[in-house]
Amino acid sequence: MDEFTDFTGSKVERSVFRYALAKLENKSGGEHLGPMGSPQLLINFEKESTPVNGHDVNLKLVLSSDSSTAMMLSFNISVQAMMYTGTPAGNIQNQVIKKELLPGKDLTIPIQVPY
Fold first, then answer.
1. Which residue has the higher pLDDT, 39 or 50?
2. Are residues 13 and 56 in the same domain?
3. Strand-pair partners of 71
4. Separation in Å, CA 59 to CA 70, 72, 94, 110
5. Torsions phi, psi of 41, nearest 5?
6. Are residues 14 and 55 part of one domain?
7. Is the same domain home to 45 and 3?
8. Each residue of 56-107: pLDDT tens digit?
9. Mean pLDDT for all residues in the chain
């Protein structure tokens, strides 16, 4: 199953296969490289508390990377309301955040969505 012949799949598919195989064998050498050879950026949203009707919603955006260099990141955060029918009801919040992700450190960005 760890064989991938040259004529099977595209160049990107072969790259993804080699990445998955290296990850399984833990041969990434400390830096987790994505399928295209770039460092992997892990993004995760965490809720700080259970949402309550009529109150602000507090979230945390947690970022981490195994890169050995610092990364300057820019985030466009857009929050929209939606009707019960699934149609958009309007924009609640638009925000641009620029932060530097240092090597070996997690970056936590608090996000408050107003009621």
1. 50
2. no
3. 101
4. 24, 22, 15, 6
5. -110, 120
6. no
7. no
8. 989 999 998 888 888 899 989 898 888 999 898 889 889 999 999 988 889 9
9. 81
